[in-house]
Amino acid sequence: TERTFSILKPDATERNLTGAVNAVIEAAGLRIVGQRRIHMSQAQAEKFYEVHKERPFFGELVEFMTRSPVVVQVLEGDNAVARYREVMGATNPANADEGTIRKLFAQSVGENTVHGSDSAENAAIEIAQFFTDADIVG
Ligand code: GTP
Ligand code: MG
């Protein structure tokens, strides 16, 4: 079993879709073993997306992620990192497969409803940014 880090982004909370997204996550066999609703500060968002800081959309991305509350999650399951990337669908919802979260709910490449870690190594780093061990209950 493996853990990954997930964020239900502001476009999900604004449209009251957190339960609908969680239903897709759970139907895919991933367990939500940690979950908290927070409003990210600018510093938190900049740190979280630091790898993208040279990209032209970085400012827009930080503004989006701090616009409304988000739900941060720890998901657990077999091959959770790869499995969740599958369930999320392509970054650009226009390219996302049928039945994926981004195909079902996302509005644009920027406002694409969810984040999921891209490796087990990054998952551990990202989980540690938002959760202590006591707040993850498997
Ligand atoms: P994450 O799970 O959020 O990391 O998405 P990803 O791994 O599918 O995409 P990537 O890491 O390449 O980009 C991170 C995030 O930046 C995306 O999820 C989008 O929210 C945003 N992003 C990526 N490309 C663009 C773009 O061209 N324009 C805008 N506005 N945002 C973008
Ligand atoms: Mg990414």
Key phrases:
19% strand, alpha+beta, 7 helices, globular, 138 residues, four-stranded antiparallel sheet
What does this structure look like?
Keywords: ATP-binding, Cytoplasm, Kinase, Magnesium, Metal-binding, Nucleotide metabolism, Nucleotide-binding, Phosphoprotein, Transferase. This protein has 138 residues and is of the alpha+beta class. The protein is 40% helix and 19% strand. It is built from seven helices and four strands, in the order E-H-H-E-H-H-E-H-H-E-H. The protein has a four-stranded antiparallel sheet with strand order 2-3-1-4. The longest helix has 11 residues, at 120-130. It is globular, with a radius of gyration of 14 Å. The protein starts with a strand and ends in an 8-residue tail after the last helix. The protein binds guanosine-5'-triphosphate (GTP) and magnesium ion (MG). Residues 52, 57, 60-61, 91, 109-110, 112, 115-116, 118 line the site of guanosine-5'-triphosphate.
Brief summary:
By secondary structure, this protein is α+β, with helices and mostly antiparallel strands. It contains seven helices and four strands; from the N terminus they run E-H-H-E-H-H-E-H-H-E-H. 40% of the residues lie in helices and 19% in strands.
